Amino acid sequence: MTETGRGGVAYANREKAYFDRRGLVRHANAWHLWALGVGAVISGHFSGWNGGLLQGGWGGMLLATLIVGLMYLGLTFAIAEMSPALPHTGGAYSFARTAMGPWGGFLTGLTENVEYVLAPAVIAFFIGSYMTGIFETPEAWQPAWWVGCYLVFVGLNMWGVALSFRVTVLVTLLALACLVVFWISALPNIDFARYALNVGPGGVELPEGNGPLLPNGIMGVFMAMPFAVWLFLAIEQLPLAAEESMDPKRDMPRGIILGFLTLSVSALAVLTLNPAVVGVGSFALGGSGEPLLDGFRAIYGDGLAKVLALVAVMGLVASFHTVVFAQGRQIYSLSRAGYFPTFLSLTHDQRRTPHLAMVFGALVGLGVLGAIWFLAGEDSRGSIIGFTLLNMAVFGAMLSYIMQALSFILLRRNFPQIERPFRNPFGIAGAVVTMTIAAVTLWFQLGDPTYRAGIFGVALWFGVCIAYFALFGRHQLILSPEEEFAVAHGRERRT
């Protein structure tokens, strides 16, 4: 054991064999990373974002999306600077570990862990909702769809990184193609004033439409922000693939910036067209579990709509597959460094994928999903599960964004000597904007009693993990690449 003297942690010695059993394979290029970022988010353009229409109406949701987009602009450019400078699988934990020490790294990793464990559970729920609507299976069968999703896509991610990225590119392109088909189909079938503006003050339906842009005023904009996050959530996962990227110093900035621009165009198109389709409307869409399917139904009728909606499931599948990838790497990195139990970072002998981390994350996600399913009343399962889990994932994400933006600021100020292949043109000001918007989103999440119980559940998970780290983990950390980088540059700064 070697005491570091910072944060009260101690490092346990590990032989080369420890890291040999935890090796990853480099495969990804810039387009793989673009697909990983876009694919992780794209499900939010199929389901989840629409809950904000009842909170703020169409106008409130538009303003919320623009504000949240500004937050992600600052975040993605900050990550575009940090990820090639610290090209390690740990991502957000890695940035914070160098900037704020072991406790800062652990807490940041923990907030991101909540996001990546719960986000696949949200997506699995929406996949089940779509599949139930398409195949008209009983509502009680939804858990079977969830289990099937996890079995198939955890299995594909375990098979090998080459297959995983091929599937990522394929399903991402299919998802984008489906959205383009919807946009083209919707254009001649919209009545914006009648349908998109059919939400009145208090979230009531206006049968004739032509309602106000901001039916609930500026407060509606703030209440819609957690749902607008779903249009961009998880673009920040790209640094988790750093040790599987062929050239992370060149490709990470390209992948994340191009991904953000792609998602911005798609988000504005979905928000403008889906609520305005004749026969749909913002009010009905606000409580829907399958808004894109509702749009297809209104345009083509039930028969053809089901075929198109089956293709639309590709959007959800793209995100599920890619976020399961991120979930496994995120748990793997914290485990390899000793913050989580180290057996979770073992990689498969032949496939070199973190199979145990992915299985553990899947079991936790399914457990949370199942618990809420059985505790929620039968009549309100759809809205409670989908939007409660969504808010729990967003809660973890907002905390992570605050910590990552703070890490960027501290790295700029305290570690100017670190090589930076890409420099964020928005600098510290952009990071401050990101922190401010994330904090506002958190505040309004905490103010909504409907979702407060879920956030308390996240707080309980934090408590359990912090107790584990305080009692056990901090006494047996391991000099993983993230830890070695942080310790070495910490010494440089002190000398």
UniProtKB/TrEMBL annotation:
<keyword id="KW-1133">Transmembrane helix</keyword>
<dbReference type="InterPro" id="IPR004841">
    <property type="entry name" value="AA-permease/SLC12A_dom"/>
</dbReference>
<keyword id="KW-0472">Membrane</keyword>
<dbReference type="GO" id="GO:0055085">
    <property type="term" value="P:transmembrane transport"/>
</dbReference>
<dbReference type="Pfam" id="PF00324">
    <property type="entry name" value="AA_permease"/>
</dbReference>
<feature type="transmembrane region" description="Helical">
    <location>
        <begin position="116"/>
        <end position="135"/>
    </location>
</feature>
<dbReference type="GO" id="GO:0016020">
    <property type="term" value="C:membrane"/>
</dbReference>
<feature type="domain" description="Amino acid permease/ SLC12A">
    <location>
        <begin position="39"/>
        <end position="445"/>
    </location>
</feature>
<protein>
    <submittedName>
        <fullName>Amino acid permease</fullName>
    </submittedName>
</protein>
<feature type="transmembrane region" description="Helical">
    <location>
        <begin position="167"/>
        <end position="186"/>
    </location>
</feature>
<feature type="transmembrane region" description="Helical">
    <location>
        <begin position="213"/>
        <end position="235"/>
    </location>
</feature>
<feature type="transmembrane region" description="Helical">
    <location>
        <begin position="450"/>
        <end position="471"/>
    </location>
</feature>
<feature type="transmembrane region" description="Helical">
    <location>
        <begin position="356"/>
        <end position="376"/>
    </location>
</feature>
<dbReference type="InterPro" id="IPR050367">
    <property type="entry name" value="APC_superfamily"/>
</dbReference>
<feature type="transmembrane region" description="Helical">
    <location>
        <begin position="256"/>
        <end position="284"/>
    </location>
</feature>
<feature type="transmembrane region" description="Helical">
    <location>
        <begin position="304"/>
        <end position="326"/>
    </location>
</feature>
<feature type="transmembrane region" description="Helical">
    <location>
        <begin position="141"/>
        <end position="160"/>
    </location>
</feature>
<keyword id="KW-0812">Transmembrane</keyword>
<feature type="transmembrane region" description="Helical">
    <location>
        <begin position="424"/>
        <end position="444"/>
    </location>
</feature>
<feature type="transmembrane region" description="Helical">
    <location>
        <begin position="382"/>
        <end position="403"/>
    </location>
</feature>
<feature type="transmembrane region" description="Helical">
    <location>
        <begin position="61"/>
        <end position="80"/>
    </location>
</feature>
<feature type="transmembrane region" description="Helical">
    <location>
        <begin position="31"/>
        <end position="49"/>
    </location>
</feature>
